[in-house]
Amino acid sequence: MRTAPQPLRFSTRWLALAVVCLSVVTPAAAQMLDVPARPRDLVGRILVSAPSMADARFKDAVVYIARHDAQGAFGLVVNKPQGAGPLEQVLRAFRLRAQPTDARVTVYWGGPVEPGRGFVLHSTDYGLNGALMVAGNLAISRVEAIAVAIAEGRGPRSTLFAFGYTNWGAGQLDREITTGDWFVVPQDVDLIFREPDGTKWKRGYAAFGVDV
Question: Which residue, 1, 45, 41, 5, is CA-closest to 181?
Fold first, then answer.
């Protein structure tokens, strides 16, 4: 888990800054995003942080793992909302045009790496040609590749908008699991998209068999 997080605000100013940040991509991040994944046992699984997690950024965190291979791992935190607002605000920030919509969207902190990069974790009942990753019955697309379809009612049934992501270097996640920083639970679509954010961590722990 790398780089310090930057404060997120769901506002026009913040979204505009996020779009500017899209042009700044570290070589390591580009490699993680663009190299075809080699699926392993953690792809499509959910991580639940241990109560003893030393990194305060990931206290009570629930992370969906979309990539886990020899180069490392990539995931999105799915239970730390940063705010909610009109979807049209997102469209304007990315200079996207769509039919007028009154839809609202909650924006999540996906992790501390590249907080200007926007992603949508979504169900696979949508064309996946533009998806960055497909893990089980969920996929991840860039905001700018899918937001218009969502605004116009042509997008996937289930969506979660996140800015920033979480990544681990080669072998790093495996070590953190071994030392007890994370617990692994099966993919749970209801937990990700429908469980209240305030109880996602507790539900994840229950899935692991621990009462909290």
Answer: 1
